[in-house]
Amino acid sequence: MRSPRVVGRLEASTSSIAAVQVVVISVGRLRAPYVDDVGHYAKLLGRYTRLTQIELRDPPARDGGAERLAARLPRGAFVSLLAADGEQLDSLAFARFVELRRDSGRDLAFVIGGAHGLELAAAEHRLSLGPMTLPHQLARVVLLEALFRAHRIIAGEPYHY
Asked: If 7 and its partner were Cys, which of 47, 101, 156, 157 is the partner (CB 3.0–4.6 Å)?
């Protein structure tokens, strides 16, 4: 049962999100100093959602490697590819985006390409973390922080946005 409350400009829901999984698939090996930050946000997110991180150590080959990556996506998941030309969302809009995906009952998968980027036909959405190009390891940290912020906003908990 859903019991909405108004938080700022966003309606917060107290419905359970345990059934919906957030999957982050990253190309490239995570190294220091990013390991600690990713671990920190993964731990914080555990209170709000089931987070699965899949790290592909070898970049997909240009000759069909993206299909190998696509095989790691949960069946039926909504797939968002991080891309420079993707949709840019502020914190409240990103929280709405996450909440809509959660309310649909579909898993939500984010794909972060490696140093040379990635094209993925299975992507239903393209998300940009901003106009600046970020190293893929830093993009992973920023995405996890944004997911944590979004879940705090959805839950109606205080968080700067």
From this structure: 156
- The residue behind tokens 């946005």 is 161
DSSP per position, 62-89: TTTHHHHHHTTSPTT-EEEEEEEEEEE-
Q: Model confidence over 104-143: pLDDT tens digits?
A: 999 999 999 887 778 898 999 999 999 998 898 999 999 9
Residue that has been written with the tokens 């590819």 in this structure: 81
Task: Domains for the chain: give ranges and CATH numbers.
Answer: 5-154 (3.40.1280.10)
Q: Where are the alpha helices (DSSP H) in 2-47?
A: 34-45
Q: What's the whole-model pTM score?
A: 0.85
Q: How far apart are CA 93 and CA 65, in angstroms?
A: 32
Tell me the C-alpha distance between 69 and 57, whole Å. Answer: 11
- With beta carbons less than 8 A apart as the criterion, state whether 19 and 50 touch: no
By CB atoms closer than 10 A (0-12, 13-18, 19+), residue 71 is exposed
Q: Give the DSSP H/E element, type plus range, for residue 102.
A: helix 91-104
